[in-house]
């Protein structure tokens, strides 16, 4: 076994142009036993063992990494020496915002157009290399997802509905003429990436590990056509609250000239172009002191659609209304989960066209999304008129739904929905 002195010399390099694989088939090997992980299990456990060839390398925390010859894929997973007791990253957990902190590893796999993804692998986090004529750079052929991992009090880690993100990426890929990983490939890649970056998962109650899967047309193409090659990549970053207000009420302004999406377009899939379209209105709103922008439909200019990066809900009495998914609104996974939670709590939830005028006499308004989770709205300004909804924090309904959802995501209550996947 290598000495601590040797291991201490192996540090991550964040300034590489094209990161090298973090294991090598040419390295000397020794035999060891490691758990075999089964993708169909909700709990990521180790009921059986397989004799493996060991490639010993040091991670940024000074632990070991092993090459795994598994029946599912050729990939790297952390060994038992990367234990529950492994130290956390040395950062100020109490001061996390929603920004990128470089972590240790990312995951990458590729396939040709119409082909199947295979042989994904973990790599050191760092820059990637793309042909100037890559489809994603020239024609915007790219999708992304967002999900989170939470650390439980017992040290285990919970993922929240990762298969839903996999399905949404596959639906988006079909719309964008892209090859996509299978649901199993997506979920397994997420698991491996989170475990490889385990020391970056915040302590309980201090935040979460944000997971960003990307799918892009990496192959070179000059004429307008689907790219000949696709790259699937996952990186992660520890994060705190999305809005600078934290869980305090946010202030929105309704945009009635610029639009986020159009019927027949790509507003209903998580393509990269949808987000570039909101930057102008969002920047102008933030310059005026607003937190974000609420968009209306582009046809009638009177029905609510969504905020720049999250869905919206309007509360009146026991009825919670949210814009129906009709092709211009992203089908948020947190949105879907809040609807189910609200109905389980006895609320009537309506998915329908919601006129902007209903904001004028609503009891509460709140937003949902992976990044924001549930965010209360303190005011909405429409055509110069400001409508307030309270200044003391969550309204009663939003607080109730937020409490149930976050306690479930963090493993503080029983998961009767079967939504979480536990990693140990």
UniProtKB/TrEMBL annotation:
Essential cofactor(s): pyridoxal 5'-phosphate
EC category name: transferase
Cellular component terms per the entry's GO annotation: chloroplast
Name of the featured protein: Branched-chain-amino-acid aminotransferase
Signal peptide: none
UniProt similarity note: Belongs to the class-IV pyridoxal-phosphate-dependent aminotransferase family.
Single GO biological process annotation from the record: amino acid biosynthetic process
